[in-house]
Amino acid sequence: METIVPNNPAEKLLFEVSSPGRRCIKLPALDVPAVDVKKALKGAKLRAKPANLPEVGELDLVRHFKNLAQKNFSLDRNFYPLGSCTMKYNPKINVTLLAQQGFTKAHPWMTEKDMQGHLELMFNLEGYLREVSGLAAVTLQPAAGAHGEMAGVMCIKAYYAAKGEADKRTEILIPSAAHGTNPATAALAGFKTTTLKEGPDGNIDIEDLKKRVGPQTAGMMITNPSTLGLLEPRLHEIAKILHAAGAQLYMDGANMNAIAGVVRPGDYGVDVMHFNLHKTFSVPHGGGGPGAGPIAVAKHLEPFLPVPRIVKKSDGTFALDSNRPQSIGKVRSFFGNYGALVMAYIYMTQLGREGVRAMSENAVLNANYLRVKLRDIYHVFLDRVNAHEVVFTDKNQAKENGVHTLDIAKRMIDYGIHPMTIYFPQANVTGGHGAMMVEPTETESKETLDYFVEVMRKIAQEARENPDLLHNAPHTTPVSRVDEKTASTNPQLYCPSCIS
Ligand SMILES: *Cc1c(COP(=O)(O)O)cnc(C)c1O
Q1: DSSP 8-state secondary structure symbol assigned to residue 415
Q2: Which CATH class is domain 359-489?
Q3: pLDDT tens-digit profile of 407-455?
């Protein structure tokens, strides 16, 4: 963005507007004897000179941060179709209720008697997730999706150890359209990973699976719907093939926004899965805030779940049970990210059974609407009925105008839309073309979806008429394109001229 008149203090770093002696609050003069800190804290390591902090007034400070906040893209200000991330609107009532003292003043070391309400909430949330998964038991402890994967794969490992098959079951099969965290999890848990190729239709190649599965197979991790936004039509058959070989089926359920309330993974033979409460069940995310990745497991894996387990006693009260000798132990302190659990509980309670189903149906409808509305202009990778997200590519624009996915994504910013997920799935999966993975979610209105369609069509027109407009986008942000490689390998985290 062009600065018309330079030197607007609100646009500068706090270090640059710092003025010696300026303060937000001026303390009254000292009316007690001064203490010599050096003497009082003898032996302590004290700073030789004061920390180099900006000295600013309250208004400087407020304007600086308000200004920064307004430059930021956020779900509350912008359509945010970031595929695979389910950036749906998070109802404010989640936070309003979570801010009540009963929650904010709770402490994990309260006695069991004093935390009955909290235990009941978590017990009920486990129940909701058991119902959505169609599986026997749930733990809420893992703090994120990938963390849930780790807990789930550790349960699989412990299961084989208990059966005396740990040395034998050393391999986990992973389709190439699985989320990247899946192979990472399997490797971190000590398994060898083998990649399975999808057939040309984007589904698992059953014949390839049959060839690879064997006595060495501990399990398969399948992302369903896949990162191509497609449902695996032969999940049940896949489960049967694995079970016949004595192996487990792990389902990455981060994309449950497409199927929750419609089908239950347990009914298909899934043995263990994780949820992303911070995607499907409206816990705010982005910027690495606290999430929750509960896992659900079939009966035979229940003894291995992390402790403590929340149990309901015959008198109707709740208790914590850590006496589970086969448990993998704890994967997170206390109960996991409790605040995230409360928000998901509020959301699911409000939606109810029918609401959860409607959520998935509308998410799928919205994604298919975008596919159909844009497929004459943008190449759809595997143009068939998709789940809650759709993968376009830059095939047409790259060939005709030398405009690539990155250029299209950057131009979207000028129209006030957060770019979709780009270059994922990777080009080796999408036929060599740059992917644009769009997930509108169910919370967007038809008007917003139509605006998105209009913007994408306008950008395609710009690609034909003025490709450089796209090559140099964005044009409305304080900084346009950054050197991403240098920014990550040699980041400059401060203003050198401001630091003495
Ligand atoms: C987001 C996501 C994950 C990882 O979840 P985190 O909470 O970021 O660890 C795993 N699998 C899929 C399919 C995802 O979309």
Answers
A1: T
A2: alpha beta
A3: 999 999 999 999 999 999 889 888 899 999 999 999 999 999 999 999 9
Residue ranges of alpha helices (H) inside 134-216 are 145-162, 181-188, 206-212
Q: What mean pLDDT comes out for the span 249-276? A: 97
Ligand 1 lined by 146 (C-beta under 6 Å): yes
All CATH 3.40.640.10 domain ranges of the chain, comma separated, are 92-351
pLDDT one-digit tens code per residue, 182-198 = 999 999 999 999 999 88
Q: Where in the chain is the domain with CATH 3.90.1150.10?
A: 359-489
Q: Would you state the pLDDT for residue 484?
A: 85
388 close to ligand 1 (CB < 6 Angstrom): no
Model pLDDT, residue 1: 46
Q: From the CB of 337, is ligand 1 less than 6 Å away?
A: no
CB-count exposure of residue 272 (10 Å: 0-12, 13-18, 19+): buried
Question: Is the CB of residue 280 below 6 angstroms from any atom belonging to ligand 1?
Answer: no
Measured CA distances, 336 to 78, 330, 390 (Å): 30, 10, 32
Which atom in ligand 1 lies closest to the alpha carbon of residue 146?
A: 9
Domain 92-351 has CATH 2.40.10.120: no
pTM of the model: 0.90
Q: Which of 276, 283, 429, 437 to mutate to test the pocket of ligand 1 (most atoms within 8 A of CB)?
A: 276
